[in-house]
Amino acid sequence: MKAKDDLSGHLLAGGLDGRHVPVAVIGGGQAGLAASYCLSAAKVEHVVLERHRIGFEWSERRWDSFSLVTPNYQCLLPGHEYAAGDPDGFMVRDEIVDYLRDYRHRFDPPLHEGVDVTRLGHDGHRFTLTTNRGRFFASQVVVATGAYHRPRIPRFAERLPGSIIQIHSADYKNPRQLPEGATLVVGTGQSGAQIAEDLHLAGRTVHLATGNAPRVARFYRGRDCMTWLDEIGHYTKGITEFADQEATRHKVNHYVTGRDGGRDLDLRAFARDGMHLYGRLADITGPVAHFADDLRSNLDGADAVMEGIKDLIDAHIEREHLDQPTEERYTPVWEPGHHVPTQVDLTRSGITSVIWCTGFDADYRWVDLPVFDGRGYPAHHRGVTSRPGLYVLGLPWQWTWGSGRFRGVGEDARYLTEQIVRATQSTRRVA
């Protein structure tokens, strides 16, 4: 479907300047598009503002071999469920970008690309949005920018010798962009484990500083583990069902990969095959990296989580009397020695580059409204903040595990649309 000339594409100069819109959606990623689809279905007039272009985060901040870790059939954007030929496969980076751009063309959202909202405030009567294309107003606002804004790099990175190239995972593309020599990868969340594997498969020498991220098996007893968890109901559990909601909301994701049809990521196997593993990177003094003495506990902890998930699957199979093949449990293929190095001279070890796979910080400094907790994170219930008319969408564990993913963002968008319609009707009754 062809986009409307006055609502999509790049914003014409002054196109929104001075205008008032009923609803402004900030962010044109999967969350913003899902919100727009639901608002359009409810016949709510709105605009969607995207700083860059559709698919930018996926195309520019993911590496070349990147793929989803959730099966394709779990891509459930409203009105755009995955319908291609490989439901149990894993879309690669360019396919994800195409999936989002196809979504945009399917329902023709009122999208303005290239619009950077630099301040969101309230004048006592309505929300004010200051942008690079002018200032305008809205009765209600959905902030759909996610929570991964600013690459997080520890301050001691400043002490690395200038001869060592440093990049964040957001800027990593492929092994060819790095200088000759070994690479230190810091962090073993999804990005760290997958990038370490990418370098390892390319024949590069990899040193890996581990963390306490858990892992999950790709397949168990004949099915993908994420399919099992979906069937068990794990993905539909609301955040309020967990005893420690804040810890749940901010915990690190399990590492696994969808690459080449999907497989486990086993750090022990990497070490067996020549990768150098250490504990958590604690400090840097000149060319010397200092590691915590926790490699064994990091590996054991990740394996314990994986086996615990298998316990859940076993219990589900038994409870439902399912006829599934049995499978032997994991046996460690490598164990750390008694003297794992806690100090490594990077220069002498031939390390010429460091990749910081240390996550992202949320950056809402442009939102000039008192709706944040002590860490600068939006305080909300199911995306509804304490400021009437202000909502957030696309956050990790906003309501369920899938909230920040293609799996569950649509349900959150539908819920917020109901709140927006209800608020609009209430305002009309008062008027």
TrEMBL record:
Signal peptide range: none
Keywords: Oxidoreductase
InterPro entries named among the record's database cross-references: Auxin_biosynth/cation_transpt (IPR050982), CHP04046_FMN-dependent (IPR024000), FAD/NAD-bd_sf (IPR036188)
Record's protein name: Flavoprotein involved in K+ transport
Source organism of this protein record: Kineosporia succinea
Lineage, highest ranks first: Bacteria, Bacillati, Actinomycetota, Actinomycetes, Kineosporiales
